[in-house]
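pasting for ref
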Amino acid sequence: MLEVGIIFGGRSGEHDVSLMSARSVLENIDNEKYNVHKIGITKRGSWKLFKGELSLMTDGDWESQSDDIVFPPDPKYGGYLNITTGEAVKLDVVFPVMHGPFAEDGTVQSVFELARVKYVGSKVLGSAVAMDKVVAKQIFSYSGIDQCAFEEVRLYEYERDPRGVCQRLSSHLGYPMFVKPANMGSSVGISKVNAEDELVKALVEAFKYDDKLVVEENVDCREIECAVIGDGDNVYASTPGEIIPAKEFYDYEAKYDDNFDSLINIPAQLPCDVIETIRVLAVKAYRALNCAGLSRVDFFYKKDGSGILINEINTLPGFTKISMYPKMMIADGMTYKGLISRLIEDAYNSKMR
C-alpha cells in the first residue's frame, strides 16, 4: 500500500478552491490501495496534518483538528515530521491538490524535489512557466501556436505613467479587453473592461494579486477546454468540452457558485476536424511548456469559424465535482476514482533527478 499525501490549501487567493478540490479527491480516492495523509497548508503558510472529518475542510474548521507538521527538504526524511507527536513519516507520492501562487507555480514542487518525494503534476520548470501567463504566451508565440493579441503591464510602469499605460492598451487592444494577474488562476482578479474609466479600476484590482499583468484583446469566441494526461510519449488529450458561461464571461462566481448555472457541453459541439486540431494543439502546448502529469488546456474558438486560439494552461486544474478536467476524462471513459489512481501511479513510476 502506497503512502500518499494529499496536500491542500496554501497561501494563494485560491485557497478555498483548493479545499473544495481536495475534499472531492479525498472522498473518492481508493483507500484500499493508498494510505492517505491529509496535509493542509494554512493561509499563513503553516503545514498541518488534518485528522478531522472531511466536512470540516470546507466548513472552515479543519485547522483546529490538525497536528503541526513540517515538510523538510532534506531527502533523508522523505516526508514530513509531526511536531505534535514527534513522528517522522515517509511518503511514496504526494498529490498537491492546490492552485495559484505558492502551489501551482513551482514553489511547492521545489520542496518535493529537494526532499526527493515523487509528486503528481508538472515539475518545477513546467509549473513555473505555465503559471506565468506572460511567459507562457511568449513560449506559445515561439512555438507557433496562435493566440489573441496581448500586452504585459508591470506595476512600476503603471505607477510611473498610468495614463500612458492606459493609452497604450487602448491603442493596441481596443475595447472591450480583459485584464488579468499574470500569476493567478480560477479567474481571480480578472475583469472585462469596456471603457477607460473601467480600465483604471481593473488594473488597480488586478495589481492586488500580482505586480505583473497580462491584458488581452476581446475575441468573439467560444470557450473550449481539453484535458491532457501523461508524460513523454505517453500523452493523451481528451475530447474537448465547451463552457457556455452563465455570466458575461467565465469568472470565479460562474465557476464555483452553484447559483450560476453555466452550461457545459462534453463533447463540444464542433466539427470533427476542429476537435482533432484542438487535441493536437493541446498536446503541442503541453509539451512546449514542459508539462507533465496533468493539465487543462484552454482555447478560444472564433464564432465565425476562422481560427483556434490558445488561452492558457492550468497545470493543477480544479478537481471539484463540477470541474472540467475530471468531467472531460470521465466522458472519455475513465472513472473519477480511476483518474485519481492513474495520476498517483504515474507519479510513483516517474523518475526523479
